[in-house]
Write a structure and sequence with these properties.
This protein is α/β, with parallel strands linked by helices. Helices cover 17% and strands 25% of the residues. The chain is globular, with a radius of gyration of 15 Å.
């Protein structure tokens, strides 16, 4: 029924619990879904609610330690979220981020407000992203800005390199 990154069964971690919670929510078992959301929070210290929408191959670094995702955010396929990342509203505008496919979000980054992170992007550690990020970009800094364009993630992340 559920396939993890390491094959069938594998480790029961925050992504597995999120997938179960999301499945229960889709089957109209909202209360049980919320119980799993709080189990995730209690066991792994992350808030990844089942109401959130995400694609396949979601990776939460260090078992989701201190990750907070807003329940309305949308994540594409193959998104890697490092520890201590916040994805949510900015308190001044209505809306939350939409994150494309093949995106790497470094440890401690904050992605806030009604913005769009396009496909094939890298958000550096501790970056504070408040504006849209174009496709194939690296953004870094507090009040992040594009530092490099037209990249592929495989050229920057060792675990994606093909040998």
């Amino acid at each position: 029924m559920f396939k993890t990154r390491n094959g069938w069964g594998g480790k029961i971690g925050p992504v597995f619990i999120y997938r179960c919670s999301n499945y229960l929510r889709l089957q109209n078992f909202s209360r049980l879904s919320v119980v799993l959301d709080f189990l995730n929070r209690f066991c792994f210290g992350c808030w990844v609610p089942g109401k959130m929408t995400c694609g396949k191959d979601l990776v939460l670094g260090y078992w989701g330690m201190s990750i907070v995702d807003h329940s309305d955010c949308k994540l594409g396929d193959r998104v890697h979220i490092g520890q201590c990342v916040t994805i949510g509203g900015n308190g001044t505008q209505l809306g939350v981020p939409k994150i494309g496919s093949d995106v790497y979000i470094g440890a401690g980054a904050k992605v806030l407000g009604p913005i769009m992170i396009a496909d094939n992007c890298l958000i550096a550690a501790n970056a504070v992203v408040l504006k849209d990020v174009p496709e194939g970009s690296i953004v870094a800094g507090v009040l992040a800005r594009v530092v490099k364009s037209d990249i592929t993630l495989a050229s920057y992340l060792y675990h994606l390199k093909k040998e």
